[in-house]
Amino acid sequence: MYDVIISLLPATFFGIYQFGFNAFLVITTAIITAVLSEYLYQRLMKLPITIKDGSAAITGLLLALRNEVGNHEHGQGEHHDRFTVYP
User: Are 39 and 49 in contact (CB under 8 A)?
Assistant: First the structure.
C-alpha cells in the first residue's frame, strides 16, 4: 500500500507547489480524517485495528487530490458545474 502513496507524492508535491498552503491543509486534513475515521470505526466495532496498512491514508490522499482548493484570498474559489463542458 505504501508504494501507492509513494507514487502519488509527485502529484501531491506539485499540488502544494501550485496551490500553496491551502492545498497542504486540505491534504493533511483529509488524510488525518480518513485514518481517524477508520480507527474509530474499528475500535467501536471491536475489529482488529488495521490503520498501519496504509489503506485509509491512500483514501484520504486520493480524496484530497480530487478536491478543489478554494482561493480564500479573493473570496470563494470558482465554482464549476460538474456537468458543464467547457471549450
Answer: yes
DSSP state letters, 16-82: HHHHTHHHHHHHHHHHHHHHHHHHHHHHHTTPPP-GGGSHHHHHHHHHHHHSPPP-GGGSSPP---T
Give the whole-angstrom CA distance, residue 24 versus residue 51: 22
Rounded to two decimals, the pTM is: 0.77
**What is the Cα–Cα distance from 74 to 64, expressed in whole angstroms?**
21
Instruction: Count Cβ atoms below 10 Å from residue 42 Cβ, excluding itself.
Output: 15
- CA dist 77 and 30 (Å) reads 18
**pLDDT tens per residue, range 1-49:** 899 999 999 999 999 999 889 899 999 999 999 999 999 999 999 999 9
